[in-house]
Amino acid sequence: MNNGTVLIRLGPNHFAFMRGYLEGLPLETLAERYLDAATDGQSGSRIAKASLKWIREQLNVAARRVGAHSAARVIFIDRDRFRLPPRKEALTLEEFREIRDPHELFSEAELIDLFHEEHGGHVQVDRRIARNDRLRRKQMEILQLLERALVSPPAMNDAVEGWLDPALSRRLQTAGIHSIKDLVDLINIRGARWWTKVPRFGAKAAAQVVTWLKTDTVGSALGIHGVQAQALMKPTQLRLTDKAMLRQREFGMVGLEYLRIPASLDGRDRRNRGQECALGEVSDLRAVELWLLDKAPDGNTWRSYRREAERFLLWMLLERGRSLSDATWEDVNEYNEFLRQVGRDGEILKGFRIAGQAWCAPRGTRRWSASWRPFEGALSESSRRQAMVILGVLGDWLVLKGYWAQNVFRAGAMVALAQQPNPSGLSTEHIALVLLYVEANLVGTQQVRARWLLLLGLLGLKAGDIALGEIVAREDSIAEGAFRLVVAMPDQGSKVVLLPRHAIPMLDDYALAVHGEFGKALTTRMPLMFRLQASTSLPETSRQKISLAGVSYLIKSLFEDTAEWLEVSVRSRIEPIKFDSTRGEEFCRHLRSANLHSFSRWRKSVGSSEKIWEAIEALYGAGGQNGF
């Protein structure tokens, strides 16, 4: 009946069909008159009954939309229940006496009781007739109410179950989508593939839902709060579209590329401006944009720098009501307290004007979305420390360029916070233990991939390089002890990665796992890091690249799994691990707090490139078992 649509599509003909049914007309006649359904023989009767069932189901859903679900049950009372038994002709008392008591054996009272016993049913029949008339009128009233409701456009607070097919609305509700507003917000936050966040919700159903939301009637009803055009664009389209076309600049909780600061807050001629600025007469926003130009665009470092500068700039503008160049060390200390509270205490932020909820949005919210916010949730201690380090770098650069007179981030409590020892620093001993875990617990493709990933991390490659890079060729004719790996990067050309000579067997194992060929004879490009699929047997062709988040997750999992393995091994006294259990708790805590950035800190602690290579060769040459 619904031709595969996910929407409720009751029209005037369906309501006319239902009215005729309630009035007692034959189903076959109604189906032929209002639904253009063939009614020959038994098939026609089946079509008519199926039509009635479908219309009732849609009316039931529509009743939920207007909050009349309980009252709408009246419509579902079958009309056969209104049929009455044949009514007997009523007799007078004198006629009854002549028939039942011709010899006058009963008294008057006895005769009246006998009369009511045998012929009083017409009173009950009259009552049933009156009741049935009331029910029919009620049915017609509810039917008219639902017909008016279906003509009305949807509102943001309407329940999805009132507009969409019951099966799909249940799936949306399982994903936490209960209203039209929830649905629109999900689409605007997640973009074109929003439906992947809803269990058992396919692309076809999603396309129909979006088409309905974008119709003139529905779009006008939802107004500016409806689905944004950017949300329906594919990622490739978004990358090729000018950011200025995705969203207009405005003053508010928006990203740097969409921020427009009024002249009174743009930072010109403020208290902390330098005397001789090498940047010229620029605003705070432009100064931050110029600072970001020093970094590789869209790289991890660039994104981290933009995020922290963006957060502090918005906080100064919206919370403090002052420009970036008006910031003082008191503001910076207050910002530290803000970072400690935001995302942790719900809506309430003690000592601040703007509610905490206004600063946070779900992870993955697109930057052009009206739902975007600078925070995704509470920050860890290390994240707060990293934020202060980055802001300190920004301040140093602004002072160096003469834009600021002094770096307000290099004062007071913020210096102490930034200089606290990092608990996730890794030693060579930690990394050796991770390698030992890989050798002892992983097999086949998983082991090959883990060893290769650890090597790339130790050599200083960033998560973006590992996730996006594709090996193009290997060059051996260079200095003794090393060889080059030519890696192609999307939209960035290619770069050369210098690997130690002893890594050749690892590259061969990796190339065999990906393409079934040795690394020295590469004939096709292969990803620097691939994603495991259902089958992990060696070899397997056409491996897919792992995502940026996947690289970080894989490294984090290796550290956490190693810590758990160590704890179990120490408790069980399993050889060959000989480990001082008195420092095991602290050792495992360091492992659990480690991530991909921990490799950079390890490299700094080791020293020069020659010492790093020597350490890597010792680690891999010993199979990760040195010192245990």
UniProtKB/TrEMBL annotation:
The keyword Ion transport does not apply. One of its GO terms (biological process) is DNA integration. Keywords: DNA integration, DNA-binding. Residues 282-399 form the Core-binding (CB) domain. Gene3D superfamilies: 1.10.150.130. One of its GO terms (molecular function) is DNA binding. Pfam families: DUF3701. It comes from the Bacteria. This is Core-binding (CB) domain-containing protein. It comes from Noviherbaspirillum galbum. The lineage of its organism: Bacteria, Pseudomonadati, Pseudomonadota, Betaproteobacteria, Burkholderiales.
